[in-house]
Design goal:
By secondary structure, the chain is of the alpha/beta class. The protein contains 17 helices and 13 strands. α10 runs parallel beside α12.
């Protein structure tokens, strides 16, 4: 019987860089075009430090058996696959074995050391926190046929949460400190965090880690599997071609959801992304997959909870979200994390919970007796209140009242407290310039989703499982960080390549 594999030798990052420099120093003139063609890919793999990944992989391998070799080299090969838009693992292995130059920049001594397709798939299976046997068993399970609803939501609307009260139960569980089962993607989430996000944080590419501004949003990811499933009954032989018998599904985790952007139904997943809003490169911090009809208000608390576990040294300063996050329970969670919510109001939710008497507009801004919006004058965290001053005294308007509402030259002052209504009275007052400027940063997560899906081609990949889709999305996110780090280390990398290009010439 074949021995069980264990984690073998792990080449340190410094040794890998020495290996690359040695390979570059022996380039011939005929290799110069390849060096120029793959210069960006070489730079990415050269700066990708995988030393932290070894500790992540140790628990995935037993302590006895035959060593599993070339683990960091396989990771670099997967990064290269996403960078060069190679279709899949078989195409990747074929290309590495046919191109010594590409094999070398991944860290393989020669093409004969490139592992086979099965080794790559075994490695990917270990990264996914669900056994292949369980995945196969779920593919064989039957469930009712998934039918596309006839009625479409209105323009701009998303599907409502399927289980009323689920957001409150999730947030209560998080605040109470109770644990959730780890999702299958938790190892890939930490691979992105330890090997890319932490390094970008050291370079200052994601903003102030002690006062992070993050934005979250969901996007649609379509599966290549058939939404109608696979028939296992004998109805066709009986002449019944439109039966409703239970069916098997090639992608058992995919569901039918509504794409509010394209205004169409799709079969697949909802990918929720947390992005560093202050990053000039719109860098992703965490990815999470859920069923297609899952609402953002249900996914976001889980994503924020995972964020605090994966990045215990980071502190969230403000969370920015669209109106899909406009839920009192999400506000409770954000305040629990000592962060400020910057969330657009859902026009369908007009419920206000603040006490009277006080005149306010729909944004929670106090209205002075003259009918003008009062001016925000800062948030006092120790007293948990927002200060507002008279607009006439500050020169913002001309008061129509014959008698001033306050004899003080400082003008009338009003305080609002978030605890009156945590949704309306936010620490950053709604309707103010600072609120508008902060909310404008929410577009960073939309640009992140666009880069993952369009620029790196997640939409073009024909995957049949959540595992394949999340792996690709993670590799694209890692490439985004490496792109930003290359810009930060441009002079250092320019000097590296300038040393070898003249020799090759």
């Amino acid at each position: 019987m074949e021995a069980i594999a264990l984690l073998g030798p792990w080449r340190p990052h410094r040794e890998y860089q020495d290996f690359i420099e040695s390979k570059l120093s022996h380039l011939d003139r005929q290799d110069l075009p390849k060096l120029q063609l793959y210069e960006n890919s070489i730079a990415k793999l050269y700066i990708l430090n995988l030393d932290q990944a070894r500790d992540l992989f140790k628990p995935l391998y037993p302590t006895i058996g035959r060593p599993a070799l070339y683990q960091p080299e396989i990771i670099r090969a997967l990064i290269l696959m996403a960078d060069l838009n190679i279709d899949g693992i078989p195409a990747l292995v074929k290309r590495l074995r046919g191109d010594p130059f590409l094999a070398a920049i991944c860290g393989f001594d020669d093409t004969s050391h490139v592992p086979g397709v099965g080794t790559f798939y075994d490695f990917i299976n270990r990264l996914w926190g669900e056994s292949p046997d369980r995945i196969r068993a779920r593919k064989m399970m039957q469930r009712p046929i998934s039918r596309i609803p006839k009625k479409k939501p209105q323009d701009g609307e998303k599907l409502p949460p399927q289980n009323p009260g689920i957001v409150k139960r999730i947030v209560d569980r998080i605040i109470e400190g109770r644990h959730f089962p780890k999702p299958p993607e938790h190892i890939l989430q930490r691979l992105l965090a330890r090997c890319c996000v932490d390094e970008s944080a050291k370079m200052g590419l994601i903003g102030d880690t002690q006062n992070l501004s993050i934005s979250g949003d969901g996007t649609c990811v379509s599966s290549y599997a058939k939404s109608s499933g696979i028939k296992t009954c004998d109805c066709r032989e009986k002449g019944v071609h439109h039966c409703t018998c239970p069916r098997r599904y090639s992608d058992p985790d995919a569901r039918i959801g509504w794409d509010s952007y394209r205004k169409q139904w799709f079969f697949g997943y909802s990918m929720y992304v947390l992005t560093a809003s202050d990053s000039p490169y719109d860098l992703p911090l965490l990815l999470r997959f859920a069923e297609a009809p899952r609402h953002d208000s249900v996914i976001s608390p889980m994503a924020l909870n995972e964020f605090t576990q994966i990045y215990p040294d980071f502190k969230i300063g403000e969370f920015i979200g669209d109106s899909a996050h406009d839920s009192y329970d999400i506000y409770r969670l954000i305040y629990h994390l000592n962060a400020s919510p910057v969330i657009d109001l859902n026009p369908r939710n007009r419920n206000l919970q603040y006490p009277g008497p006080i005149n306010l507009n729909h944004l929670g801004i106090p209205i002075c007796p003259g009918g003008f919006e009062m001016v925000p004058w800062g948030y006092c965290r120790s007293r948990d209140r927002v200060k507002w001053r008279c607009p006439h005294v500050l020169g913002r308007c001309r008061c129509p009242l014959d008698n001033p509402c306050s004899p003080s030259p400082y003008g009338r002052t009003i305080y609002t407290r978030p605890k009156w209504d945590i949704r309306i009275f936010t620490p950053i007052p709604r309707g103010t310039l600072i609120w508008d400027n902060t909310y404008d940063k929410r577009t960073s997560v939309e640009r992140t989703n666009k880069r993952i899906k369009v620029d790196y081609g997640l939409d073009r990949i024909r995957f049949l499982s959540k595992k394949q889709a999340f792996l690709r999305a993670t590799l694209h996110a890692m490439n985004m960080h490496l792109d930003a780090q290359i810009q930060h280390k441009h002079d250092e990398l320019e000097a590296l390549f300038s040393n070898y290009m003249p020799r090759a010439a």
